[in-house]
Structure of DNA polymerase I:
Amino acid sequence: MKKKLMLIDGNSIAYRAFFALPLLNNDKGIHTNAVYGFTTMLMKVLEEEKPTHILVAFDAGKTTFRHSTFKEYKGGRQKTPPELSEQFPFVRELLDAYGIKRYELENFEADDIIGTLAVKAEQEGFEVKVISGDKDLTQLSTGHITVGITRKGITDIEEYTPAHIQEKYGLTADQIIDMKGLMGDQSDNIPGVPGVGEKTAIKLLKQFETLENLLANIDQVSGKKLKERLEEFKDQAIMSKELATITKEAPVTVTVDELSFEGYDVEKLLAVFKELGFNSLLGKLEGADEIVSEEVKEISFETVESITEAVFAAENSLYVEVLEDNYHTGEIAGFGLSNKNGNFYLPVETTLQSEAFKQWAKDETKRKQVYDAKRSIVALKRHDIDLQGIDFDLLLASYLLNPSESTEDFAGVAKRHQFTNVKTDEVVYGKGAKKKVAEGDVLGEHLVRKAMGIADLYEPLLKELEQNEQTDLFFELELPLSLILAKMEYTGVKVDVEKLEEMKAEIAERLKEIEARIHEHAGEKFNINSPKQLGVILFDNLGLPVIKKTKTGYSTSADVLEKLEHEHEIIREILNYRQLGKLQSTYIEGLLKVVHSDSNKVHTRFNQVLTSTGRLSSIDPNLQNIPIRLEEGRKIRKAFIPSEKDWVIFAADYSQIELRVLAHIAKDEKLMEAFTNNMDIHTKTAMDVFHVEADEVTSNMRRQAKAVNFGIVYGISDYGLSQSLGITRKEAGQFIDRYLQSFPGVKNYMEDIIVEARDNGFVSTVLHRRRYIPEITSRNFNLRSFAERTAMNTPIQGSAADIIKKAMIDMAARLEKEGLRTRLLLQVHDELIFEAPQDEIEKLKEIVPDVMEHALELAVPVKVEYSYGPTWFDAK
DNA sequence: ACCGACACGC
DNA sequence: GACGTACGTGTCGGTA
């Protein structure tokens, strides 16, 4: 096996981790963010690189040999924050548990240790991988030494090979130090030549190759000022280069062979992870599963073969297990039940046939606490069992307490709330192809533990909700909504399969023709769906100009192709091919795959516990992204039809709900006035941003205003806006500034909400939905900016989600009250789609807008538009 | 089995 | 001055 040495710059990675992550505390009040970041980075690189040898190098003491050259070296640096210093002993402890050697050397920096060992190892035939957060290290890169520099956060690593350096800077790795000599390095207090930055340095080095050669030929430099500067700071440049040069001859006392890595000691490492509170990482430790799973305490439970009323109590924690993700098709595997009578395992066959169970299930006075109410309801409903009286959903409660935490498996959710007496599903059932229902007692015990977990967490989670003022949000909004969603999903949407088959045949024909023409243009056959092959055809063979690159090659995305449209006829064909191909594979074939053949219906699943803003998502099939924008795609909607003869599809959507919410939250006078007067909001925005009258707003101005409004609603950056408008970032930034000047109330809101997020650590919606935004205090500009946009955007998007959710609940109640047969089928973020009997249309025209518009009262009017027809396509 | 590129909706 | 820039779902090709 090839020997591979990994050299990690310990100080640098710890620093990066510390500044990239929010200040985490473990339960003992020790800060752990740097250790945590260090660990995640380590796990990732061990997994990816599989090194045979490793060393983590640290800086030793304050002074190094460089200080004798320049006593100000690294001067002006801020003191290491105590919150970070206190973490270093834990980093060392962590490395020891990993069985990774660490090393420091008096008078030398970690860089020098790494440089020296890298060269030694390369000479001994090793592949060498260096990991640091400091770009200086890239100078070490050679054919066998690759330097990985952490990018965003700490686990995203950019690989610097000589080729990559050449591509990025147009320089060789050796020239990196010449560049540093010229431009200096503020963080190390290396002066360089004042006025010379990266751009100038690269330009000069391309011409003169080395600093020495440049300084010997200053007369050939163009630019008077530059010449003078180089002349004046000649010595300083030489010294700077010297400071930036990593020595490859440090008196390192370890040999490369001593650094062999034998793999970590699982038990030791587990102990360290536990001490630090790294619960989320426990599961990622290979071999840890067995150890973790051994730790659950013993429980006793009873397997109930024949159910009588006596097993149930007034309050019951019930866990319904469906192993498959898709509970519309997957079967129930069993039940766990926990109440004051004891802990019970109810095997699936007997339970589903038990009349006692059925009666208990539908008795709403018998209270049930569950995990994932919607899943439980639908799974039971398929067996004609009506589950009523649910007054707690652990999954839903946990989501409301922190929507950013993932909710993949019971054990993970429970553990977050300190219930650990349950194994993960993966441990019990296995994963991937090996996943299967556990046998009798093993299954029983697992399900009982889950029921016990629900029982255990019921009170504490209610209390937490109460403390967050989220009791109403839980009981009045999300829990009732889950019942409505269950019904919608179970009802399903009827699909015109014949229509889809027709479209499939027609599109297949057209695709074939386009494909032939594309191959004709290209002069050869290739896979048009492969961006890689397409890139070769367009940019290598046809020689079209390269607009954008991805990290794997040429970009062939639609925005790139649109810019090339006039360069070659093939482009138009490819765009058409893509459009039709998307329709065919995702929407026609994809939809046909998930149609239930007995009913010709699709049963999506709405994920109620996924997004951090409070929106729903939809899968299997995703019915929230059915095409509408382009006419060709919109036709897909013709295949969505009512499930009963002579019924119609009735669709109602909120007009500009997010911007109305913004007007409400920000109390912006002009925005409120615009909505009160029922103005076209994009035209109004254009008038204010461009300072023109209504009749002077051109279509282009309106288009730009619309994009700005879009940006406000989705929290995009100036860069994002520049991309969508095809303008520069600077211009986009100016647009945003002008917008904010035009709507000072909005500007104030944006400023205030950021302060609020910083003070509280979270932002809230009108119905007290929360989203924590720890990165808001990050010292990393990117993370912080992103967090700020999140803080601005979440209350807007989240409150809009609150409103439509409330409308769904009110709507269900209203339909019930009016005795209508109309059924709610879908929610698509700002619209509700129903199927309805013809004779209820007139009634719906009145009540649907009424209910939706008054779900929550805002400071501005809320407007709903509706339409209906024989298919979803016609409801436009 | 997983990742990146791409494309659809809001 | 660079960083890398709404989210969620699904398909495909390419590689493991």
Observations:
- Residues 432-433, 529, 531-532, 550-552, 555-558, 578-579, 582-583, 586-587, 615, 622, 624-629, 633, 658, 713-714, 797, 828-831 of chain A lie near DNA strand B (CB under 10 Å from a C1').
- The longest strand of chain A covers residues 647-655.
- The CA atoms of residues 311 and 341 of chain A lie 7 Å apart.
